[in-house]
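Trying the structure run again after the queue cleared.
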Amino acid sequence: MQHLSSFVLYLTASSQVGRRAFTMSTRRTTTTRASAIKREATGMASASTNKNKGKNPKASPPVKKAKPSPKPKSQKSSSSNTETAQVPWYHVFTKGGADYNQYMREEWSFEKRGDQALFEKVCLEGSQSGLSWQTILRKREAYRKTFHNFDPHKVAKMTSDDLERILNSQGDARETVVRHRGKLEAVINNAKCLLEMQKETGDSETALDTFLWAFVDDKPILNRWGESFNPYDYGSLKQSPSQSTESQAMSKALKQKGWKFVGPTTCYALMQSSGMIIDHPVCAPEWEQARQRLLSRPGGFQERDSTK
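Done. Tokens:
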């Protein structure tokens, strides 16, 4: 039994060994055939390549990739510079207002002569104190109507009742003056001072004219400032003076004669608006236009670097 069992085990083992050998043989055969097939395929591909070498077979042309369109150069800087060049320098405070722009083009820095015209300037510049010129410009016709077109003889005769009527007047912005008692009283007071000046000099037409223009020796001062100026930057105005030795002397002299609301800054604005001082920035075309105008002026003019 024991030997039988051993034999059975032997047969079983032999059978298993046989199967393994058969399996391994089969695998070797399969592998050999696969290798042969692979070598055959490789040889055919190589032969095909050699056969076609040197030929230029027709083929679809390669698709060209479209080049991306170049990005347009920024026009912001150029456009901004062009726009700035087309905007007048005084846009910085007129903000494009039609009335204000017209005033700057046609009145500001042009000579004003004669007592009545200059009396109006003194009164309006004094009324502007603490306000914008645009506010006064809108009301200029109302001032002319209220104060008899700035005839000093008529204004000097205005009474306290007239003053109260003005203070209590109603209407829109263009129909009423600035209802500031001190400024309104100053207009009447200054009319009386003008009449006294005319009486002292015996000149009823140009006493104030002669007095004021004497502070620039009857020769307008063309200031040089603002080699560059940005009409959108209010800070550019810091280059411009707001007073001068002449305006300080004028203020002092007027106050000594009893005039009111005639501080040095107000007097400087008066000198600018009446053409005693021309204060366009030198980079603006208005500066050269003013210079050409002054070159033909009898009596000449002065040119000054106001930045020093």
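DSSP finds 14 helices and three strands in the chain. Worth checking whether this holds up in the mutant runs.
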